[in-house]
Design goal:
554 residues; 21 strands; binds alpha-D-glucopyranose; binds calcium ion
């Protein structure tokens, strides 16, 4: 395998709106990010993925772009962006932008022109159809609820939006659309970006001709996944995009890919793949119900282990997955994967370690390094996220009481991850001197960066140790390139695996509050990491505390 500059890196996701506000308007911004680069460098991360900060009406928090060549004034200016790229470079860090090209905003000039003249060249930038009264073109359900079809005002036509109605899908079948996209990608890469995260990319290829599928809910609509299963030929678009853009630059790209077919993995992330890497969402999607969030099943520690190992086995050494425990679309990983009532610094460190040392590129989402938790929402009025509001409606329609519906959707709400970063114990967690656009998590008084930076036993300090271990000259090769072999899979609530390369490491987490003992076959040479001060040893046996996590060299 050819070695690439990004193989041994650690990535960090920034959600600009909630990271740090430099001017007191309650909205995080680019100068805010620049002022925190030293914080990030001290943590040890190298690649910074920024959720969108392009010009946008923020109908879906920036994932609805109205100008791909502009920075939204709420986030700053293009000079700020150039400065961020340069300041990051000075510190050996790389900036990834979010590439949102399945759709744009309905406020993009292309869409405005399509609306003025649907038969003109811009009409073909989107999926437009003639409206037939009383009949939808297809019965596909948008990811954010309701039909994917919306009237194009004043035209007698309808347009397709697989996300929000303010996010019209771009017609990738039209070569002019693709040209515009490639031009924009290269324009950004010429600025010296480290690469892109590719948003919702699996949606760019629709199954054509479009048709209805079997409805899966009482609304008579079908999930987008049903259509996507039938769509073939995405590789032509992705391969072309790679050749026309990324390949010409030595950049890192990571795809937001759900439901890939196993045989597609080499095409996606193999040596010559469309992307450098793609996220492992196996744990994220586990337990999801086609009925909606209210009917989803919470994952158990054993299922978590199974999901991680299955994904690892599918990819093997064919490429590099990007491993996450959370992102801006998901609840906080510690609240989701650690059994209820057991969230504590030890269990948070265990989860961090188990995920971080999997084979692949580790991604840390802002605040994850502090062990930030889900928000104790007490009313649906506290929720901003359009997806949560839709899921709440669905839950109510299915007969859940207000209280039950809130409880169900609060667990999965995207707002859990979107509350402001907890910098300090001061007002609004030190995120802003004004009023934050989204309320801070009330636990900021105890969970915040300032305290954790001083405390060698904090969750953040543990993340630093994990990062340092991954980068240490002795263990780097093993952690980056070594294989992964699960062990003790028959044991309940014990997640353990070998990483085998130049050296052999045994990574283990006692995923329960009860103690247990394990026998290390052949003993061990050295303890590299331990989330407790002590390690119980009785002869051959190691006795592990609840949620104890160890990395041993064996
Ligand atoms: C991706 C983004 C999500 C957004 C959606 C539409 O899933 O991560 O935040 O809502 O795409 O762009
Ligand atoms: Ca601001």
């Amino acid at each position: 395998m050819t070695k690439k500059w990004w193989h041994d890196k650690v990535a960090y996701q920034i959600y600009p709106k909630s990271f740090f506000d430099s001017n007191g308007d309650g909205i995080g911004d680019l100068p805010g990010i620049i002022s925190k680069l030293d914080y990030l460098q001290e943590l040890g991360v190298d690649i910074l993925w920024l959720s969108p900060c392009y010009q946008s009406p923020l109908a879906d928090q920036g994932y609805d772009i109205s100008d791909y060549y502009k920075i939204d004034p709420r986030f700053g200016t293009m000079e700020d962006m150039d400065c961020l790229i340069a300041e990051a470079r000075k510190r050996g860090m790389y900036i990834l932008m979010d590439l949102v090209v399945n759709h744009c905003s309905d406020e993009h000039l292309w869409f405005q022109k399509a609306r003025q003249d649907p038969e003109g060249p811009y009409g073909n930038f989107f999926y437009l159809t003639d409206k037939v009264e009383g009949k939808l073109p297809t019965n596909w359900r948008s990811y954010f609820g309701g039909s994917v079809w919306e009237d194009l005002p004043g035209t007698g036509k309808q347009y397709l939006h697989v996300f929000h109605k303010k996010q019209p899908d771009l017609n990738w079948e039209n070569p002019q659309v693709r040209e515009e996209i490639y031009k924009n990608i290269c324009w950004w890469l010429d600025k010296g970006l480290g690469g892109f995260r590719l948003d919702a990319i699996i949606n760019i290829k629709k199954a054509l001709p479009m048709r209805d599928y079997e409805p899966d809910r009482e609304d008579g609509l079908c999930s987008m996944e049903t259509m996507l299963k039938e769509a073939s030929g995405i590789g032509q678009f992705l391969g072309e995009m790679r050749d026309r853009t990324f390949r010409k630059y030595d950049v890192f790209t990571v795809g937001e890919v759900f439901n890939e077919k196993p045989e597609e993995i080499p095409d996606f992330i193999g040596e010559n793949g469309y992307f450098s890497s793609m996220f492992d969402f196996n744990e994220t999607i586990f337990g999801a119900s086609e009925k909606g969030w209210y009917a989803s099943r919470h994952i158990t520690p054993e299922e978590y282990r199974r999901c991680c190992f299955d994904a690892q086995a599918r990819v093997g050494t064919m490429g590099f997955l990007s491993n996450i425990i959370e992102n801006h679309d998901e609840p906080r990983g510690v609240s989701r994967y650690i059994p209820e009532g057991d969230c504590c610094p030890e269990s948070k460190k265990m989860l961090a370690g188990l995920n971080f040392l999997l084979r692949g590129i580790p991604f840390i989402y802002q605040g994850q390094e502090l062990g930030m938790e889900n928000v104790p929402f007490t009313s649906i009025d506290e929720i901003d996220d359009i997806s949560t509001l839709d899921e709440y409606r669905t839950a109510r329609e299915a007969g859940l009481s207000e209280e039950e519906a809130l409880k169900a959707v609060a667990f999965y709400s995207r707002d859990n991850a979107r509350t402001p970063m907890q910098w300090s114990g001061n007002a609004h967690a030190g995120f802003t001197t004004g009023t934050p656009w989204l309320r801070v998590n009330p636990n900021y008084t105890t969970i915040h960066a300032a305290a954790q930076m001083k405390d060698p036993d904090s969750v953040r300090s543990f993340y630093k140790q994990l990062i340092a271990l991954r980068k240490s000259p002795e263990y780097k090769e093993t952690i980056v390139y070594g294989t992964l072999e699960p062990v003790w899979e028959e044991q309940p609530n014990l997640m353990a695996y070998y990483r085998k390369g130049e050296r052999t490491l045994l990574v283990m987490g006692n995923f329960q509050r009860e103690r247990r003992s394990v026998v290390i076959p052949g003993g061990y040479k050295k303890v590299l990491l331990n989330n407790y001060k002590e390690l119980g040893e009785e002869g051959e046996k190691l006795s592990l505390n609840g949620y104890q996590f160890l990395v041993l060299e064996v």
